[in-house]
Amino acid sequence: MTNKKRNKILVVDDDKQSLIDIVEILDSDYIVYTAKDGMSALEKSNEVLPDLILLDVIMPYMNGFDVLVELKKSDNTKDIPIIFITGMRETSSEYAGLSIGASDYIRKPFDANITKLRVQHQIEIINLKQDLEQTAIAAQMSNHAKTIFLANMSHEIRTPMNNILGFTELALDLNLTAKGRDYLNKILENSKMLLQIINVILDISKIEAGKMELEHIPFDAHDMMAVCQATISPKAHEKNLELRIYAEHAPGKVLVGDSTRLLQVLINLLSNAVKFSETGVIKLFASIVKSEENSVTMLFEVKDTGIGMTPDQISNIFERFTQADSSTTRKYGGTGLGLTISKNIVEMMGGTLNVESTAGAGSTFSFEVTFDTVDSDTDVILKTIKIEMQKPTFEGEVLLCEDNLMNQQVIYDHLKRVGLNTVIADNGKMGVDIVKNRMEAGAKQFDLILMDMHMPVMDGYEATEKIAAFDLGIPIVAITANIMTHNNELYKESGMTGFLGKPYTSQELWQCLMQYFEPVSWQTEDETRHVRPDDDLYKKLAIMFMEKNRDIFITLEAALRAGDNELAFRLVHTLKTNAGQLGQTRLQQIGQDIANRLKKGEKEISPLKMQALENELNTVIDELTPITAD
Known about the structure:
Elements (H helix, E strand, L loop, with lengths): L7 E5 L3 H11 L4 E5 L2 H11 L3 E5 L7 H10 L8 E5 L4 H9 L4 E4 L4 H60 L6 H31 L8 E3 L1 H18 L3 E6 L5 E5 L1 H17 L5 E12 L2 E9 L7 H6 L9 H7 L5 H11 L5 E5 L3 E14 L15 E3 L2 E6 L3 H13 L2 E6 L2 H14 L6 E5 L7 H10 L6 E5 L7 H7 L3 E4 L4 H9 L6 E3 L12 H14 L2 H10 L3 H17 L3 H15 L7 H23 L1
Parallel strand pairs: 1-2, 1-3, 3-4, 4-5, 7-9, 14-15, 14-16, 16-17, 17-18
Antiparallel strand pairs: 6-8, 8-12, 9-10, 10-12, 11-12, 13-19
Helix pairs in contact: 2-3, 5-6, 5-12, 6-11, 7-8, 8-11, 13-14, 17-19, 17-21, 18-19, 19-20, 20-21
């Protein structure tokens, strides 16, 4: 027999000749240790940790059965297989040994061939088990290494993606030609597509690592269906497909679960239905199949009239990176990961994702999920499913702790767009010092702190803990590209109140800010985007604006200091009217707000509002200067 490694065997027998005989049989193939009684066997087992023990049944002081029982009590030796050796012929002895954990029996006198075969059989099982354990450990280490790699790559990819998305959205606010706006919109659209692919890969890794968790939050199923309708309708309309979406209502009940992940599954199934259909109807039906006092079971079905699948294609459809065939990938695109993720999410929810399909006649994907429920008349806060919102305008001041200059600029400009003043700290220590200095001076503190997690000198975790120790009650939101691992608990432990993942869109940033600021006004994004009319009237209005308003802020401040509210009101009213004529809605809104306050008789305008007015006025003047200089 040839072994790549020499396994260790302990032979225990009080008969000297038996030890000599069995050592002679096994010594050429294994490393053989011996013991002459039960006590020395226990000591030797813990000393050498053999792969296999051959144990005599009849011995003085401690018989083989007692030795086996003691071996099973120790964590070091409990898994070592035991072969009993005995000269007894009674089957009752063999039964007794096997019933307490022995793996096999070898009878005396020893037959060399039978002894070798029985030992070889046990050693092969042992080695196979050890190989499987090593393979499993290697696989775990490989998955762990992959998880770390993806977490690091996530950060490295998502940070520049954040800047691409951010600067593109900011650029769309500028005065652009129609062609320039079209190019930027295409950059934005493709950047979001790339981000979706990154998120899909990260979702797969989260599932494999067991890091994906489900929320358990009340939500409105009809709101979720409305988002499905709003998301898929444009795609269906482009292909002249009819889209039908219906959800049965559970009277008096509110569903509790993870609406975000459920929405992810439904959007994936609907997107596939549209992708693989050229004519016909796409249907999403959600019906109640069972309703109990505190739960509702719903059946979700997505049906299409598309290309369908063969039985062989169906059998592989949920495998990773798999589509029906290579021609499908070439024609329709996609990563082949969406259904894998959807299947795993549905299973995490306690359901099974099923598919019925006929080649050329369409497909139906369905699953059932049981949700906990609460009464709709109870005081519950429904999870808001994110939909496109109007652009809010806030008042307040934000401390941004961020070391990356590009990130500083994109976040600063985004916050400026919605009326927030921003102070920048290049690292966590600077942020702590700025907060501490304001505290010691008795100055007004920041309304919000946006904290990057990876900075030199002092990272976001330590900076947050130090600021939280001041007990000032300033909300701190983590901004990080690392969304692979479950760091939410670490953020909370450090004292953070929220989390914003990079890259983020304007909508996602506004949703975050809405948790900490009350909007003072609203406007749609389209209202902030104007293609400047290239005509003489606009130029004349711009020249008049510059003549009347270049120094208006200095005059306004003087009027307020002198207590002349009537003059201050006229100045602001004129400024906001002129701004409206030029389509400068942000300046117009700030001016309108201050004018309203003065009209109500307020004697003082807050420094933040005045700062916002000055900043926006200077921005407009900078924008108009090249026009009026021509």
